[in-house]
Every structure is written in C-alpha cells, then in structure tokens.
Recover the amino acids of this structure.
C-alpha cells in the first residue's frame, strides 16, 4: 500500500459525515496522498456511509460496483454508520477491501499502510458500547459552508432509529477545543460555521474516555459569540426538548448566531410521537415555535418529518398534516420511513404500505414548497445580510451566477461579481 498515492472520497448522509470526510481527506493529504474526484481513477476510494434509510445502503453497494468497473485494482474502504451496523454484510460485497467501524474511522492512515489487494475484506470494528472517544472534525472547501462537529452519538431510544447503534453514546468536544478550531477556521477566511452533532443540544456529555465536561450547549454558543471573530454561526438540527427559551432569547440578541433553527418534529400526531418514543409533545413543539417567533419574527425554521412510520394511520397522518400546516415554519425535510434492522419500530403495527408512504411524502413536500414560498414572500422588500458563497454554473456556456444565503436562510442568486465572493453584502430581497 506504500506506493499508492491518490485517494477519492464519497460521502452519504448528514452534515456530520461531510465534516468527518473532510477531516479524513486532510489526514491523507498530509501523508502525501493526492486527492481526486470520485469520478476519476484513484488508488484508494473511501465511502463514508449513512444508514438512516435503505437507499443509503443501496447507494453504497452501487458505488462499489461502479468502482469495480472503473478501477478494479484500486482499494475500496467503507466506513461510517453502515460499516458499524453491518460490517460482515459489507465485507461480502465484491471489491471491498477494508471495513472500518466507528472506533477505527480516524485510524484510516494506519490501516491503509498494511492493506494488501486480493485478500478477503478486512473488518476493523468493535462493539458500539466500547466507543467512547470523540474525534473533532470540520469541513473546509468541500461545501459552501463549514460544518464543525462538536458532538457525536445519542442516548435516546427512538423506535425508528439506528444511530445510537451506529454512533454510540452521546459525547462531545470541550468548549476550549471548539473555540480553538473556530479561531483556526477564522484564519482560513471562513465566514460561517454550522455547529453539527447527532444530538447537538446534548453537548457537554462525555468526552475522551467518557469524562464529563460539566459544560452545556448554551455555554458553548455564548463563548463562541464572545471569543471568536467568525461573523456567522448556525445551529444545526436541535431537539425541541433541548432548545430552551434561554437559548432562543440569547440567539435573538447575539452578535453572530443567525435567526435560523432546524427542529426535528418527525410527526404532528402525539399518538405517533409516543410510538416513536420521542421526548416531547406537539404542545411543547408549538411553544418552541411561538417562542422563536416572539423574539425573532423574521427567523427561518426548518422541520424534519417522517411519513409512513408504523402505526401512522390515515387519521394520524391527517392530524400530523393539520398540525404542521398550522405552524409558522419555513420549510420541511420530509423522510419516507424505511425499515431498519434491530429497531423497535419493526414490532409496531399496522405497517403502512410503501405506496401510501410515497403519497404522503408528496403531500408534505408540496406543503413544504408552499411554506417556503410564503416565508420568502414575507421578506420581499426587506434588506438582509447575505453571505455569497459559491458560483452556480450548470453548463460552461451559462452566465456564472453567485449564490448565497441571507442571515435567515433565504437563498439569493445574482450574476457573478468577484468582489462579493465569500463576503457579506446587505441585499434587498426581491
């Protein structure tokens, strides 16, 4: 493996995965590897997987088959959630050389040094209960914004979810280390950081070796606001039961935290929430939305919803739709339920037919479109600070366009101007 010098990465799933892939990429580049596009021929291909949906599993297998056709002599490494949950299954996929579980992901460099092509796939994994360390990571240049991982794992037991089995117990970085990384990113010219985690509001639980930090998420965001020069922070997905009024009121007055929240709901039916073993009710969720809008009427609020989960009858879906329709929110991320091995949801009846799940997905996506249009229309004529971040050009013959987001997450596209790239510009929305 010592002679192999090029590597290509592909990431499936969440923002956290993107930050981790970016960190792995930097580690290999420091060891002399040349980074290539995944569509190019490389000596090593690394797929960082997700296992939230069945499609992510299928896509992983499809990617391996594509590599086999494109570069059959190359090494294929699978890591991420799917690799932790089903390492033996992955090892049987023709072409896979190495499977790295949650505890071994960041030891990729060492594993590559001893890898030999032609042998059976090597599995390096452990019981998820033994995973206690926290590995800091962030993305730079891979996405339009920088995602900074500050927390990992989850102690919740939602019936539909495999993440605790794939990521382990809740654990997090220290505030001091997060601040240090934010300052490093500021030196690189980063203007916006998205704080990410599996259960972000749980920040402060166990660090290396499971040690308690005696810190919390509210303290983290206050220190970042006060001690760093990053102009913009966004809070990634945060559970409604962990999003306190204290946090909401503080964000409204802060220097750098944007008026943008992403709050998982999963269902607007209390009966379904109970089946899911979620830790809140629709009444608490309503309180959180009202609390945000009371102090930040211009705030953007995104919502995660799962349709077609076991036990979601037609009546419960209608109840959920009506509840979501009534909320003053800005957009939805709609997920169609798919069966996950080893989850309690498999025991819940009735099972919703796949055709019905897909139809409900379309209904909520349409509602999301309406919510997004209404939210954007409310701000026409207003001037908001926009960070222009990336060039949008589908075809070389197209006029290059500059794309960015307002503080409250309204996407703005305008003809390219070099002086605006990675700059915050006051913009009248039209």
């Amino acid at each position: 493996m010592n002679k192999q010098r090029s590597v290509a990465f592909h990431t499936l799933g969440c923002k956290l995965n993107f930050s981790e892939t970016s960190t792995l990429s930097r580690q290999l580049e420091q060891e002399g590897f040349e980074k290539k596009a995944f569509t190019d021929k490389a000596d090593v291909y690394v797929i960082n997987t997700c296992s939230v949906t069945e499609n992510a599993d299928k896509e992983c297998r499809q990617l391996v088959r594509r590599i086999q056709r494109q570069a059959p002599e190359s090494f294929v490494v699978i890591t991420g959630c799917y690799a932790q949950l089903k390492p033996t299954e992955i090892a049987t996929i023709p072409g896979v050389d190495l499977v790295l579980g949650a505890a071994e992901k960041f030891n990729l460099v060492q594993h590559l040094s001893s890898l030999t092509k032609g042998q059976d796939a090597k599995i390096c994994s452990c019981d998820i209960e033994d995973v206690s360390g926290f590995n800091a990571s962030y993305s730079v240049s891979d996405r339009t914004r920088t995602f900074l991982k500050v927390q990992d794992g989850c102690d919740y037991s939602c019936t539909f979810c495999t993440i605790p089995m794939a990521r382990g117990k809740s654990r997090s970085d220290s505030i001091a280390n997060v601040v240090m990384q934010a300052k490093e990113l500021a030196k690189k010219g980063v203007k916006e950081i998205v704080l990410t985690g599996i259960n972000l509001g749980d920040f402060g639980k166990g660090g290396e070796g499971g040690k308690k930090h005696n810190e919390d998420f509210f303290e983290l965001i206050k220190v970042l606001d006060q001690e760093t020069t990053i102009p913009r922070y966004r809070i990634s997905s945060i559970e409604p039961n962990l999003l306190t009024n204290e946090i909401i009121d503080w964000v409204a007055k802060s220097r750098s935290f944007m008026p943008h929240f992403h709050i998982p709901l999963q269902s607007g039916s209390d009966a379904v929430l109970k089946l899911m073993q979620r830790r809140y009710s629709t009444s608490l969720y309503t309180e959180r939305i009202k609390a945000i809008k009371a102090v930040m009427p211009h705030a953007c609020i995104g919502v995660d919803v799962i349709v077609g989960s076991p036990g979601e009858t037609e009546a419960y879906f209608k109840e959920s739709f009506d509840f979501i329709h009534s909320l003053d929110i800005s957009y939805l991320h709609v997920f169609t339920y798919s069966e996950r091995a080893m989850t309690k949801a498999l025991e819940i009846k009735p099972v919703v037919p796949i055709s019905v799940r897909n139809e409900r997905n379309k209904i909520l996506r349409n509602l999301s479109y309406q919510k997004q249009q209404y939210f954007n229309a409310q701000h026409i004529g207003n001037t908001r600070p926009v960070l222009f971040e990336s060039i949008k050009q589908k075809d070389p013959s197209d006029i290059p366009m500059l794309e960015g987001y307002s503080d409250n997450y309204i996407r703005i596209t305008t003809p390219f101007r070099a002086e605006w790239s990675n700059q915050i510009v006051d913009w009248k929305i039209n």
In short: The CA atoms of residues 23 and 230 lie 20 Å apart. The first strand starts at residue 6 and ends at 11. DSSP finds 13 helices and 19 strands in the chain. The longest helix spans residues 354-378.
